[in-house]
Design a protein that fits this description.
The chain has helices at about 1-20, 260-305; strands at about 20-25, 30, 35-45, 55-60, 65-70, 75, 85-90, 95-100, 110-120, 125, 130-135, 140, 145-150, 160-170, 175-180, 180-185, 190, 195, 200-210, 220-225, 230-235. With about 300 residues, it is an alpha+beta fold. The chain has 2 domains: about 20-135, Immunoglobulin-like; about 140-260, Immunoglobulins (Immunoglobulin-like, Sandwich), CATH 2.60.40. The strands form 4 sheets. Strands 2, 4, 5, 6, 9, 10 and 11 form a 7-stranded mixed beta sheet that branches. Strands 12, 13, 14, 17, 18 and 19 form a 6-stranded antiparallel beta sheet that branches. Strands 1-3-8-7 form a 4-stranded antiparallel beta sheet, with no helix packed on it. The longest helix is centred in the last third of the chain and has 46 residues, at about 260-305. About 25% of the residues are buried.
Length: about 300
């Protein structure tokens, strides 16, 4: 009986815990110095009219600091923050809190979080965060550099697709896989974002989806970025390779043949080249270290041979 009561309390707590959500938009903001940036926090699962929404700023390598909290029609600023710079307003009808940062400086480049207290359980819920970039580089995502590569060779009755997204800035992007408008995230593996060209501030990433070879569902690679949102559909693995990519993902020559094999080979060669460069640099470093120790070992011998 005691075990049943504990289980009921646990389920009730879990249910209440899962209902409160704070969805922040956009994922990132890129603005130049002296401009303004506006971000939103849409909430659900609690009484917005009586709640206090807290806004935090987390600079790189530092702990989050609360800027202010807003509720009951008033805003309370924390010490060290200026009310002329940080402006907060609540949209009660939309259960949304908005934060605007004025006269941006490089110090404002940070991740901003909204939060709310659940006083029933003494838990503070945080939003997903909005990352603010203060830069002269404009946000971009090159759609022509998005490739949905053909399925890999079958292994244990499964095949894998890869969505390769190249040439975007800033390095904040969300990639999901959808199955007939239903999330198929449990089958996806997201690779780390890498920076192949630090001077150009151009980023790339890849995401893999593994599915059963014989399924007949339609999948799509969906991406969300500050500059552009969209998706690239993938047809069933049973369909020919030519029809498994959308226009713009794979370039076609004038004779109409598909260059999917060339793209795959190019990607593999590029990866092999990067690995070769890394190994070469490591070998050179080891060689320098060995020469250094040999020199240190020979120096005392030379000194011992000299006359006092």
């Amino acid at each position: 009986m005691l075990l049943l009561q504990v289980l009921i309390v646990t389920l009730t707590w879990s249910y209440g815990y899962s209902q409160i959500t704070l969805l922040q938009t956009p994922l990132s903001f890129t603005r130049t110095v002296s401009k303004s940036a506006r971000m939103s926090c849409k909430t659900s699962g609690f009484n917005f009219n009586s709640a206090y929404i807290h806004w935090y700023r987390q600079n790189p390598g530092a702990a989050p600091k609360r800027i202010l909290y807003i509720g009951s029609g008033s805003v309370s600023m924390d010490e060290g923050f200026d009310s002329k710079k940080f402006e907060a307003r609540n949209d009660v009808s939309g259960s949304t809190s908005n934060l605007r940062v004025h006269q941006l400086t490089e110090e404002d480049a940070a991740t901003y979080y909204c939060a709310v207290w659940d006083h029933t359980y003494g838990i503070k819920y945080f939003g997903s965060g909005t990352k603010l970039f203060v830069s002269n580089i404009q946000a971009r995502l090159n759609v022509s550099m998005i490739q949905v590569l053909p399925p890999s060779s079958e292994q244990d009755g499964k095949v894998s697709y890869m969505c390769l997204i190249q040439d975007f800035y800033p390095n904040v992007i969300k990639v999901t896989w959808e199955d007939d408008k239903k999330n198929a995230e449990e089958n996806a593996v997201h690779e780390e974002i890498w920076d192949p060209d630090a001077n150009q501030k151009s980023y790339s990433m890849s995401s893999w989806l593994t599915v059963d070879k014989n399924n007949n569902k339609n999948y799509s690679c969906k991406y969300q970025h500050e500059s552009k949102d969209g998706s690239h559909p993938i047809e069933s693995p049973d369909t020919p390779v030519v029809s498994q990519t959308t226009e713009g993902c794979i370039n076609k020559p004038e004779n109409g043949t598909t260059l999917s094999t060339d793209i795959t080979d190019s990607f593999m060669h590029r990866t092999a080249y990067l690995i070769y460069i890394v190994l070469l640099l490591k070998s050179t470093m080891y060689y320098v270290i060995v020469l250094f120790f040999i020199y240190r070992m020979q120096s005392p011998i030379k000194h011992r041979g000299k006359k006092p």
